[in-house]
Amino acid sequence: MEIWSWLSHGKPLGIILLVGLGSLCLWGRDPLVQKARVKGNGFQGTDTISAQAQAALRAGNYAVAIKRLKELARAAPNIAEIHSNLCIAYYFSGQFAEATEECRTALKLKPTLVNAQYFLGPSLAEGGYCIEAMPYLERDFRRVADKQLKRIIGTDTLRCYMDLNEADKGVNLDQTLIAEFPDDPEILYLTTHLYSNLSAIASQHLLAVAPGSYQFHRMDAEVLELQGKPDDAIAEFRKALEINPHAAGVHYAIGILLLRQGPSSLSKAHGEFEEELKIDPGNANAEFQLGRIAGSLRNWTEALAHLERATRLNSKLVVAQIALGEAYVSSGRVGDAVTPLERAVEAAPGNPTAHYRLSVVYRRLGRTREAEQQLAAYKKAENDVLKSKQRIRGSVADDLKNSNKGDTDH
Question: Which of 115, 291, 337, 364 is least enclosed, having the fewest CB within 10 Å?
Answer without folding.
Answer: 364
